[in-house]
């Protein structure tokens, strides 16, 4: 049994810019690995890659601190006119 976004995030002071979006950072531990993410508060979607989510903005970059996995957004398509069902 699994549930999405059941993470205890710790917000950190690191910031970066990804695809022209100012991003803030957060860390969490999941199944024995520590994850560091950068999320964009300007995109108010509490989601991200894989199972990661639950932050006040879309996760644009995520990686494990041991280097095992990493994800980084490569494009933001603002032309989408459809609806998103959760």
Structural account:
This protein is mostly beta strands and 86 residues long. 0% of the residues lie in helices and 43% in strands. It has a five-stranded antiparallel β-sheet, with no helix packed on it.
Main sheet properties = 5 strands, antiparallel
- The average pLDDT value, as a whole number, equals 90
How helix-rich are the residues, as a percent range? Answer: under 10%
What percentage of amino acids are in beta strands? 35-45%
Q: Based on helices, strands and strand pairing, what is the structural class?
A: mainly beta
Strand count: 5
- Low-pLDDT runs of 5+ residues are none
What is the count of helical runs? Answer: 0
Order of helices and strands: EEEEE
N-to-C CA distance = 19 Å
Spatial strand arrangement across the major sheet: 1-2-3-4-5
Please state the overall shape, judged from the principal axes of the Cα atoms: globular
Radius of gyration: 13 Å
Short description:
With 86 residues, the chain is mainly β. It is 0% helix and 43% strand. It has no helices and five strands.
Write the layout of secondary structure elements.
Blueprint: E1 10-18, E2 21-30, E3 33-40, E4 58-64, E5 70-72
Antiparallel strand pairs: 1-2, 2-3, 3-4, 4-5
């Amino acid at each position: 049994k699994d549930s999405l976004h059941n993470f205890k995030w710790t917000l950190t002071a690191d910031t970066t810019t990804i695809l022209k979006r100012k991003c803030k950072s957060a860390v969490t531990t999941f199944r024995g690995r520590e994850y560091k993410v950068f999320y964009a508060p300007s995109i108010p979607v509490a989601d991200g890659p894989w199972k990661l989510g639950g932050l006040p903005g879309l996760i644009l970059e995520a990686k494990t601190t041991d280097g095992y996995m990493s994800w980084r957004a490569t494009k933001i398509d603002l032309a989408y006119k459809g609806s998103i069902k959760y």
